[in-house]
User: What shape does this take?
Amino acid sequence: MADPFEVRMRFTSQLQHLNASSTSAQKAAQYALKHRDQSEDLHSCILEQLERNNMNNRANIMYFIEHLCDMSRRESSPDYIHMVQRDILLMVDAVAPADGSGAANVKVVRRVLSALQQKSYLTPATVSELEACLAERDTTAGLVDEESPVSGTTGAVPVPKRQDSAGSKNFFNGGTRPEKRVIEQRIEEDRERHKRLRESIWAIGGGGEGEEYEKSWEDVSDAGEDDAVLADEERGEKRLAAAMA
Assistant: This one.
């Protein structure tokens, strides 16, 4: 049996080094399931890291939670799912606190909550209650919004509202503006996530050309009278062009 302290330290390190790639999230989820006998302790690591890290790490851990639930379901190991259901409010509070310091993460939380609901990890009632809390914390009306032509990126980046006498930059309800390095990292990670999202939208399953043909066929509308008229016109134009050649 692995040393519990070593397992905890390694898992904590994996959480701290999560990024926008799905590989890092899957690796951490696999490690958590490998040591599922310590699930309660490893779950407490997730809560601790959500409280201690910067806004980027919190967002990455929030996305990781979805991967962990998916992998837990595939391996018929529901312990982590049950703990996420139990502590989802604590997680939301940590990723997007009421003090506004995590305003840029509100949309991240909403995406993950929506995904967890669609996959039946969370009930619609639970998500509705959490959405009500998030509505009060969403101060992104004055931030650079996702896919904004101003930012050219995905992910809201806080813009300071004023500079107080001490020289520290604040925005809206008092949240401190993140460091430039953190903002740049967030921009890059959001760009990577948006790229993967576009790829997943266009992705077709492993059924080969036959599946792609079926999908294309389903997307085509039924032929009507107008289509027949257009086909006759095109046929006539081709014949005329051939005669003149």
